[in-house]
Amino acid sequence: MNETEIKARVLEIIKSIAPELEEAELRADRPLRDQIDLDSMDWLNVLVALHEKLKVDIPEADYGKLVTLDDLVAYLRERLAPHTA
Length: 85
Prior knowledge:
- By secondary structure, this protein is mainly α.
- The protein has one domain: Non-ribosomal Peptide Synthetase Peptidyl Carrier Protein, Chain A, CATH 1.10.1200.
- The protein has 4 helices and no strands.
- Helix 1 packs across helix 3.
- The longest helix has 15 residues.
- The termini are close together.
- The model has no long low-confidence stretch (mean pLDDT 91).
């Protein structure tokens, strides 16, 4: 799965939880929760959905590293790399 595909999947999952998301206004380098107004439960639901849909383990210790869309895409790209061979 390449970076574009990962980003599309992440956005698809976020939209399922926050359908009001305006993708064109989203800044990939800014905190997602602030831009989309996600509370902590919504954010947890995003991370759980990423785990379920992409089959990527996201330990709770890593949650703090996943702030922006860029962070999520880079994290997932790294975790998915062994599975894309």
